[in-house]
Amino acid sequence: MLKGNAIVGQSGGPTSVINASLAGVVTQAKKTRAIGKVFGMRWAIEGFMRGEVVDLGKESPATIKGLVGTPGSALGSCRHKVKEDDLPVILDVLKTYNIRYLFLIGGNDTMDTIHRVEAYCAKRGYEIAGVGIPKTVDNDLFGTDHTPGYPSAARYTALSVLHAGILARDMKKVDQFVIYQSIGRDAGWLTAASALAKTKDPESAPHILLIPERAFEPDKFLQKVEETYKNFGWVSICCGEGVKYADGTPVSASQTRDKFGNVELGAMGGTSVAMNVHKIITANFPGWRGEFEITESLPMSAADRAVKLDLAEAAKLGAEAVKLAAKGVTGKMVTLVRGRGAKYSASIGTADLADVAARAKPMPDSMITPDGFFVTKAFYDYAAPLVGPLPKYTNLTLAAAKPAVKSGCGCGCGCSSK
Q1: Residues 46 and 12 grouped into a single domain
Q2: 392 lies in a domain?
Q3: Which of 97, 179, 300, 394 could make an SS bond with 292 (beta carbons 3.0 to 4.6 A apart)?
Q4: Over the stretch 173-226, which tens digit does the pLDDT of each residue have?
């Protein structure tokens, strides 16, 4: 059994439950005999290379417990792609603090970081145990049934579309359409969650989904918009930020790139899918009005909408990562494995860091309708247990009132004479 100190960091965008995973790591590490001190990376791997290390053992138990349900990334985050020149620096800092246990909470790039650091240390004869803890609202991490953070962000999305849909329905004589844009570069899991807002009433929102797994075809889309408007007098559209045309061009038309070489989508790129879809609709339906809603980081930080199941699983994965590392497991990411029963259950599994770093998990075809504009029952069965029941609102019966004076009576007295 390795003996030494442990360190944990948080990378990339937060989720409303990422601090629960942090609490799980710290709490379990303090109970683990092989681990001496528990440190934290301030500003993730970027800060770590500058020696910005904090002693989480000095935090009170109440503070660590309070992390569960606290939004943001308590340690601070970064988006830094580790380069070859960074690895010797990282190893020096690991040695300086006698760190033998490395835990990072994040997505694909974070798992790649652990994998590369662990491999580099092994080549240099410095033994460490590196275990990743999944995090992303996109839900596109390979190897796990779902990622902590997704259920809460999915609930945020479903509630937002539910509420905005009621408003849009009641304002359809003024505005003919509404567009809601969600996060999701390559996968439509979060956009698809908006479908959970739909009730048995066919008019309820949403009506059309635009997801990255399907190419955006303007003519086909406009035909669907027109058909929906004829049926209901308004249209609710939900789109993912990464939707592309058949040739791979982003519908957002963004050309700005981030540190990883990815096109900046959403507001970060100075434009958006929702904005351009809005332009397409108004250009083809003169006189129509509509609005678009771009939530960006809101679903990642809405602690008030966090799902209890999500918080519990996030904390459990943090604790299990420590337990596995103490048993000698390294080069893995802890995962959630869904049970087969009708009632939701999940157990803990693992996936190789190398696989998680190199692969993604788009929505399967079985969850997408043949026309590409909505989801199937398979998606509802998958997502509904994670999000939980949504509120049910009242609708007026809107029974027509009877006039006091029958048509044709001009006396104004309320009689029935003609």
Answers
A1: yes
A2: no
A3: 179
A4: 999 999 999 998 899 999 999 999 999 999 999 999 999 999 999 999 999 999
| Cross-strand partners of 8 | 40, 103
The catalytic residues are 138
Q: How confident is the model at residue 170 (pLDDT cuts 50, 70, 90)?
A: very high
> Is 175 contained in some domain?
yes
Amino acid at 135: K
Domain that includes residue 320, residue range:
4-136+304-358
* Torsion angle of the four alpha carbons 248, 113, 43, 85, in this order, in degrees rounded to the nearest 10: -100
Whether residue 105 is found in the same domain as residue 213 = no
Give me the phi and psi of 54, to 5 degrees please.
Answer: -115, 155
DSSP single-letter state for residue 363: P
Comparing CA positions, the residue from 10, 13, 20 lying closest to residue 308 is 20
**Integer Cα distance of 85 and 66 in angstroms:** 37
Verdict on whether the full-model pTM lies above 0.90: yes
Asked whether residue 213 is assigned to any structural domain, the reply reads yes
| CATH label of the domain that carries residue 199 | 3.40.50.460
Residue 288 sits in the same domain as residue 275: yes
Using CA atoms, how far apart are residues 16 and 137, in angstroms rounded to an integer? 9
Would you say residue 270 lies in a domain? yes
pLDDT tens, residue by residue, 77-123: 998 999 999 999 999 999 999 999 999 999 999 999 999 999 999 99
- Alpha-carbon distance of 43 to 78, in angstroms, equals 6
Domain of 91, CATH number, reads 3.40.50.450
Q: Work out how many domains the chain is built from and give that number.
A: 2
Q: Cis omega before residue 206 (within 30°)?
A: yes
Count of Cβ atoms closer than 10 Å to residue 282 Cβ: 15
3-state helix, strand, coil in the chain (%, to 5): 40, 20, 45
